[in-house]
Amino acid sequence: MEPTDPCSALLADKHVEFIKRLDKKHDELEYWMTEHLRVSGIYWGLVALFLLDKPAALDHQQIVTYILGCQNSDGGFGGHTNHDSHLLYTMSAVQVLLMLGALDQIDTKRVTDYVVGLQRDGMVSGDEWGEQDTRFAFIAVAILSQLGTLEQLDTQGIVDYVRSAMNYDGGFGSGPGGESHAAQVYTCLACLAILGQLHVVDRERLSGWLAERQLKCGGLNGRPQKLEDVCYSWWVLSSLEILGRVHWVDRQKLCGFILSAQDEERGGIADRPGDVPDVYHTCFGMAGLSLAGFKGYALKPVDPVYCMPKDIVERAGLGSWTDKVPESWRE
Amino acid sequence: MRIDGCSDIEDPAPLAQQAAWQDVEPIAQDDGPSPICPIAYTDEYREMMGYLRAVMAAGEESARALALSGRVIQANPGHYTAWVYRKRLVEALASDIGAELDWVSALSAKHPKNYQLWHHREALVERLWPARAALALPEDQRLANPVLRRELQFVGSALDEDAKNFHAWSYRQWLVARYELWAQELAFVDTMISQDVRNNSAWNQRYFAVLRGRPATTQLDAALARAEVAYAVEHIQFAPNNDSPWAYVVGLLLRHAPAALHEELLPRIRALAADPGFAPAMSSTPFYWSALVDIHEQQARALPPAERAPLLDEARAICDRLATQVDITHNRYWRFRKTAVGA
Prior knowledge:
A: two-stranded antiparallel sheet; about 45% helix; about 0% strand; B: elongated
């Protein structure tokens, strides 16, 4: 059945070209402004390509060489060559190497030591300057689980911190008292999932809160009374998937919203219809479509904890978080 | 690229033409042996980055390096490495922290949602007036301190600009908790709620201000619970179909004063729903019915098991109403919620 409205179809070829163009010189201002997170940009682009089942659209060897060149003497990775290490870019680097089957090319101990070195008083900072945020709790746990060195972290301290960020509405904030926000909810749930601690969550209240993120247009917002944004298709939907409640949103309407945010000329997906696309929203829009079971294209299934293709996660032995989901949650 | 109040960014001449930079050979962008996503720069940014790389590579610690780091950050505040370099320079040069705070403040107007700016601010404030020293004074004297007064004013302005700025609220929580400025916070929250009763961040802050950093298991005394119920209902009356006060009062009481759910909240919302002036609005908002489900469940919990059935049946009937009439958008949730009543 041919859709008459182009934006009810997934413009897969255009998205592939959009992502490939990231590899070329560009006059677009966005590209020099994002040098410092190039490593994350590559991760976002690769996820989208893998989910579109076009993994070879970028040169893997080139990427691996580049990523390895972003590792610093402290064992962490910067966002670009000769950039200082940060947990965010270390995460993206490890994920990219995992996806490309090149994790064996780094010294696991060096990266582990870098991450473990950022833990103080139970919580993990994003860098040596001490910024604390529940995002970093997840990232530290996710990195070490991918490296197989999770036992070197004081995971109890992390669980305690995440629990302290749980709010009266069932959601999670960036730290104790912080307003519930869908992105923080995702990172806290994903962290607890890896550590097998999901029982601390108020499953029903949080699921209800997440379901409420869907607005009449079908899009999802990140907290009450805020605008919809394609990236919440991931943060909210992955959270609901971990909670086993993804059917509580109208997935068809959500797909319609994501598709309407595609750029028909340039390819790529924007935060909302009519805006300029970027690789971040392209990644999370694609992941959202996959989780929502979009039928118009054979997207690869995505793991809701790691935001990487399910088959890669399982092959790496990381799919076992599903075994640790509370017994009472399985229906 | 100019920022008012930042004297180190005033000279618009290219660095290559500035006498102060003649001794430096800029280092061109090196995209590594296998360039991925090479980036096109505007000429000015490209030049600045070349000089920044040069002075970083040379380990230079100077006023001009500090100024340059500021220009790069101003152009691209997410540039993490420029921040790292700047922080090290501030230390090494023993820069005036007050001046650094001025610089951060000027930049924040343009970049209100940048993580590094807010975190840098925290570090500077802590250095300007360590909390340990501050807490030796009573709260009213702390509030009179110019450093804290400025910070409260700054974050207040940021919230005037964008009342839901996640970073600003987070920073304010850090400030209030670290310097124990609890006594003044509730009034601030009330002002924000008055400005926009639908501001979920402000209601979240009310919870923060009421709890005052105490554990999640704290039980609030009856008078406080009653006062918060009255406050919430007053704002519900103003706009019944508004998620935030409902979520706030139900969430607060469930955790910290469960008995008040049916002793205080229930009669007040029932009265409002019976009032002809408010009945249509109340009966058509999902939040009213949802609160009733929570309240009846809590009431049932307080009874012996044999006596719970009528309340739980009522809660289930309300879930049906929500699923089929009042909140059809979330009907899957309400159908499930019905099965979970009393579980």
